[in-house]
Amino acid sequence: MNEADPRPSKRGRRAGDSGAREQILAAARELFAEHGFEGTTLRAVAKRAGVDGALPSYHFGSKGDLFAATLELPVSPREALAGVLAEAEHDEIATKLLTTLVGVWDVVGGGPLAALLRSATSQDQLLHGFVTSEILPLLRTAMDGEDVDLRAAAAASLVMGLVMARYVLRIEPLASAPPAEVVATVAPSLQRYFG
């Protein structure tokens, strides 16, 4: 309430476009670049953006999804991976995963993920934090055995290597091979990590 208007003030999101989403993205890009993935919190993003602390979660969900949004990826890698792992038969995980990822990456020519890999030497902390916090835990859920951590890391390295070779370095004939051929060639190697 205020003295001029005795009615209680309304809480929640204001009507219309407040620009909060864009402010959050801009703040997140800055903080991820400054502090890496692990060193950035949703609370710090909200503070830098000058918005309510709940808005980053409201607009983007998790920190991983916010990171994916800053890269302007067409789909969240974490969500795509979780969907494949939940739906695929165990012996088809690699094929389904690569079909999904190559399909998305081919549309955007590797897109911002390829750009991030190009700058990996200057953004290594950012990429490391994202892979170890968001990707590896999901891969581990689809694996059994004593060496799950090693196999999950090896699987991630194979996929990152594929992105680097196909979209960044453009190594032929891998760079111009049809997606189905890429999947058929790489999937057996990736599948062995899932057991």
The gist of it:
This protein has 195 residues and is an all-alpha fold. The protein contains ten helices and no strands. The chain has two domains: 20-70, Arc Repressor Mutant, subunit A, CATH 1.10.10.60; 77-194, Tetracycline Repressor, domain 2 (Orthogonal Bundle), CATH 1.10.357.
How would you describe the overall organization of this protein?
- The chain contains 10 helices and no strands.
- Helices cover 64% and strands 0% of the residues.
- The chain has 2 domains: 20-70, Arc Repressor Mutant, subunit A; 77-194, Tetracycline Repressor, domain 2 (Orthogonal Bundle), CATH 1.10.357.10.
- The longest helix has 21 residues, at 148-168.
- It is mostly helical and 195 residues long.
Number of domains: 2
- Number of extended strands: 0
What is the typical, i.e. mean, pLDDT? Answer: 82
**Helix/strand class:** mainly alpha
Write the H/E string, N to C: HHHHHHHHHH
List keywords for this structure.
Tetracycline Repressor, domain 2; 195 residues; 64% helix; mainly alpha; Arc Repressor Mutant, subunit A; 10 helices; single chain; 2 domains
